[in-house]
Amino acid sequence: MKKITLIVLFGALLFAYNGAAQQDAMFTKYMFNSLAYNPAFAGSPGYLSVRALYRDQWWGIEGSPHTQTVTAHMPFGEKVGLGISLGNDKIGATGSTSAYANYAYHIPFGKGKISLGLQGGVTNWRADWSVLKFKDPRVLDVSFNDLTPSRWLPNFGAGLFYYAQKYYVGFSVPHLINYDLRKFDQGEPTLTTASMARHYYLTAGATFDIFGPAVMFKPSLMIKSVGLFSEFSASPNNLNKVGAPIEFDIDASFLFYETLWVGASFRSAFQAESFGGKSSFDSADIWMSYYLNNGLRIGAAYDYTLTELQSFANGSFEVMLGYDFNFSSRRINTPRYF
User: Fold this and answer.
1) How many helices (H) and strands (E) does the chain have?
2) Is the separation of the CB atoms in 110 and 74 below 8 Å?
3) What is the pTM of this model?
4) What is the pLDDT of residue 225?
5) What are the C-alpha distances in Å from 243 to residues 235, 266, 328?
6) Are the beta carbons of 167 and 146 closer than 8 angstroms?
7) Quick check: 9 and 29 in contact, CB under 8 A?
8) What is the pLDDT at residue 323?
């Protein structure tokens, strides 16, 4: 049965390979969730900002990813920003819950500001292998000796964020420490390990006035990678190297009268030459967001899957709810819209 097969596949891949796939949750509306992957974003809008996002990926397939995040941050004085980010992710037989505190220091630089960010916190990773269907008896595989593993994984991250009136660019590593997710018995071979891998993010965006404040064009880009530089050439013959594809999101949107924001995006990925060097089209996405005068923000997104999963799923969707305090300061054309 295809639904059960998908759950087995997720569990098997996680325990069989080290970093064989992107682990951090993806978001179509990543520009509204910046603090979740870059602590340097804390305080940059200039007021208290709260966001909550929910994502149902590959809707209709049992065991598909379900993700929720909540972030809140604000400036303290002219140069310091503080925030908190909470996340919960469920995929197949595994799940994780995280809580991180964020600190950013903003320094005037050129026509904008450069922000240096740090974050620290903990992630609880857990699994319930009893929900899986095993082809061979479970007792033959020592990977599943513990049916309900749970690990608390302290971590910290860092980021850079430069923002000016018309553009921004950022780079971040939200979790700097790699963790093995399996506990090995004494004498057991450890060539192939399941791990919580380090992720790298590069973001950029800009604002172009088309008809003054009535219509603004806002393109943006995110690149996410598990393997960086030397790890790009990871070989399938070396399972302790990272072989995940490099994922990128390209987005184009229009903001009308600083109230209605609509956009479309394209998500794809490409692999190292040793893994075939092929690109894979993941999804084509549409989204919208609406700003109410009282500071409330609502939004939604839909992804049309471009892979064979579309035959079994109904795409992916997201909903966003946010609130910006001191909302009158919003009407300044800065990257706070991102």
Assistant:
1) 1, 17
2) no
3) 0.82
4) 85
5) 7, 22, 47
6) no
7) no
8) 92
